[in-house]
């Protein structure tokens, strides 16, 4: 009987071992299945996140310049480009803006009884000023604007009035080296002294005579064809400074002044464009109301 019992024992042991091996294989299979399932889940999650990121909007701009060369800011304008831009604004004021301003807060020139000033059959506009002069500084803005309605400017320069005078360092332009072309008028401009009060340009004999006779050699002086004249400016340059009530306040920049001229309600428009309308109305008397679209405009008619 011993042999059968031994055989049974061996069979039982083999069965137990087989069962254990089967159980081990099942555990291994389950482990691999779990790993694969986990990897599949991770792949799905990664794909979902990547898709979400690709569809998300770009971050809003902060307005700050980026240090990346690909996002570098536009290069700043040169001083010549800024000057050209400001002159373009001043010389291309829309008629609607002039019309809204009318005579503004500027003064008219006085009529004169002297001989007519003409050149090549055209009325002559005589200006004698000085680069240091703060009142010349304001008057130039208006004169440039007015004459741009009859012709074109070239080579106008940037200038500031004296830093040690009232309305110090007023932003303006200079007629030194500038040229003006028109089929209606001739402009004869002289900057007699520079910003340091040194001699600069000499007025022609004709201009010098009317300047000393009618203007007592003061700055600025204007004569429109021998029919209108003014010794002094049409307005004090209060709006060309930060504090209009303080003649020693900081000056406004050329950009500030030029940009303000796009608003007919601004103090700068009322002074500069108002003065320009008055000059235009008086010049139209000399040009037989030409050009008609300018001389018959509402702003010019209101300034007569």
Automatic annotation (TrEMBL):
Annotated TM spans: 29-50
UniProt region (Disordered), positions on chain: 57-76
Q: Does the keyword Secreted belong to this entry? A: no
Nucleus in keyword set: no
At the top level, the lineage of the source is: Bacteria
Which terms are listed as keywords in the entry? Answer: Membrane, Transmembrane, Transmembrane helix
SUPFAM superfamilies to which the protein is assigned, alphabetical:
Thioredoxin-like
The name this protein carries in UniProt is DUF929 domain-containing protein
The organism encoding this protein is Nocardioides baekrokdamisoli
